[in-house]
Amino acid sequence: MRVRAVERAVRSRWYGWLRLEDGRRLLLSGDAAKWVREGEELELRTRKRSRVLDWDEFELFRTDGTPIWPPYARHLEHPRQGFSGRVLYAYRLVAREARFAYDFEAIAELEQFHYASDHATVALWQCPGGEVIAANTRPVCPQGEARLKEIRGSTPASRFLILELAERLPFEPRIVGYLRLDPPIPRVHRRLPDGSVERDIRERVFPEDWFHPTFDLKDALAEAQIEGELEEADWRELSGRVLDRVETAAARIARVVVHPDYRSDGLGSLLVRLALEWAEARRVPEMRREKHLVCTIAQMARFHPFFEKVGFRYLWETASGRPVLAYPLTQEARERLERFLREDPVAREHGGRLYRPRYGRATPLPAPIELKGVAKAYRSTLDLEALPEGLRAVLEAFGVRRRVVERRVLRGASVRFEPGSVSVLWGASGAGKTTLLRLLLGEPPDAGEVRRPQARVVAFLPGEREPALGERAVLEAVFDRLGDVTAAIEVLNRVGLSDAVLWRARPKELSTGQKERFRLALLLAERPALLLIDELAAHLDQATARRVARGLGQFVREAGITLVAATHRPEVLEALEPDRVVYVGYGSVWAEVARRQGPGVDSRR
């Protein structure tokens, strides 16, 4: 039925209401209510006849059919494939517009991990007594519980899309990412290679009314000051007036933030894809005009390709030197964008591409590694003389006296490792996996032959051979070895250290699991031909170990690095997708080609 909204109220992002001409009241989020103009005609669907309709008791549309309420939500599965294309595991997720107070509190906590956050504290909280406190998590108030007031850096026009784990382990976060969608910024100028600035470049490429009128509170404040209204005008009323003017055919992705532990699994790209769907289907943020274009201004796009993986094209640098990328939603936008990339002299040079991988390929092994008839034993003398007399007597009671202990670990072992392959050493503790790695590293056998071509070899054998962590910050240490910051970030991302805030940390500030991943990054930064790892991911939880193993397996194959890793963890074996599994035990070694099953989804992250 057709209804008319005669009053709106926005108490917070998560609470608002509309009063209709017939006296009924519709309860909905403030982020949806703020975009309905007073006096606007709407389409209401409900089976309830009550005077107050709660969130789940109605549907609301604009007269052209654009949905306003309930907010956008999608249940989806996010499969993660290995190098072979087989699905290793999958996330079950809910993508939905933020609508509850705890959604925005989770957003505030995630915001502190954003690459480009300008604030040491990212949210404002209000205590029951009226005091406003800036903090990243809920502060303690003397009078009672604080309530979130606002997320710093956002505007009244911002809309938030969150990514929630529908299935999670008890220790996993509920919300693992969010995206903020805004109207376009009022003006965009281009900095040319010679340093000169071309004003209003955006309106040269696309129609001006795609970007105007947009949310421009600065101009509204200036107008209010000129008219002498500012002292009397309530801030909410002023924002409401500006929101009522907004009617653009473009949207801007202002933030994409993924929990640091989940960034290596493509959730950033997934959020961007969902935002495109959200903008196209719902016409967000203001829900008034068909959207032709979604754009973003993101400095970090130079160092991470997830926007371009989705299909965004690089356009230009802003006057302040930040890259602008865009995704066309309509054929008209696509044609205009392609014409610009084809005809503009500067754009022709870059062809719409910003990010280029920099790590490249390592110098590979020139030939296979071969072990032929190898034997290896370890001999030690058991001497009780150094023990106190009382302890020596206890051991002697068990029959332990001075003796020579000899343990034969390998007997006539033969195995071959091909250049560029990934091999996993599998066996119980003490079976000889570490011994085999020592032989590959250069320790001589007692008998037989180890043929290893001359090449750069690095190894991580905990307690025996480990890369020194040093004192330098994480990013600095990896950069020093590679000499290229983009390549350094590629390596850190692949080993599961994808948090830019963490990159400035010193080794002493890292957890045990983070130190293990940092050591992997330092080894990869050597661009080795052969990488040897004992007990890969030993200090990581199951979900993180799986993510790190998957990323490492893909990375070494792309770079042409030969990897031999020992592990006893099934999830690591599965995620590495080895070319061969080398079984070690009872003095023997035998290898078999790894059996890769079909594309079944394992949802146990």
Structure description:
The chain has 605 residues and is α+β, with helices and mostly antiparallel strands. It contains 16 helices and 31 strands. Strands 8-9-15-16-19-20-22-21 form an eight-stranded mixed sheet, with helices on both faces. A seven-stranded mixed sheet has the order 5-3-2-1-4-6-7. Strand 1 and strand 2 form a beta hairpin. Helix 12 crosses helix 13, helix 13 packs across helix 14 and helix 15 packs parallel to helix 16. The longest helix is centred in the C-terminal third of the chain and has 18 residues. It is elongated. The chain starts with a strand and ends in a 12-residue tail after the last strand. The C terminus is likely disordered.
**End-to-end distance:** 46 Å
Number of helices: 16
Largest sheet at a glance?
8 strands, mixed
Count the E strands: 31
The outline comes out as elongated
Unreliable runs, pLDDT <50, ≥5 residues? 597-605
* Assembly category: single chain
* Order of strands, widest sheet: 8-9-15-16-19-20-22-21
Helix content: 25-40%
Approximately how much beta-strand content do the residues carry? 25-35%
The helix/strand class is alpha+beta
Q: Round the Cα radius of gyration to an integer and report it.
A: 30 Å
**Global mean pLDDT:** 89
